[in-house]
Amino acid sequence: QVHLVESGGGLAQPGGSLRLSCVASGDIGSVNAMAWYRQAPGNQREMVAEIPFVSSARYAESVEGRFTASRDIAKNTVYLHMTSLKSEDTAVYYCNAGLLPSYTYYPKYWGQGTQVTVSS
After folding, report:
1. How does the average pLDDT of the chain come out, rounded?
2. DSSP 30
3. Cβ density class 27-46: b for 16+ within 10 Å, e for less
4. pLDDT band at residue 103, thresholds of 50, 70 and 90?
């Protein structure tokens, strides 16, 4: 079992920045990747960034160039640095730990989510 706790959400203005954090604990050796997802009201949950433990992060097209995902191995923490925020980035953001055996990511453990609201 892997326990995930997100933090860092809140209110930002369009064009602004926020950084989300996700601390992982438990059986981290049972997963080999983490990811950030988001879900806006009325929408399906979508992957925003995928963070393999042994290769570079990959991003959804909608956030490419604006969001940066990173991992601090020593702190068992992943981050999502969001810049040039848009109103359409408003959503609940979820941290996930899962498996990436080849190209497809398989989510296993979810955090509780943190709200990000982009509004002037």
Report:
1. 95
2. G
3. ebeebebbbbbbeeeeeebe
4. confident
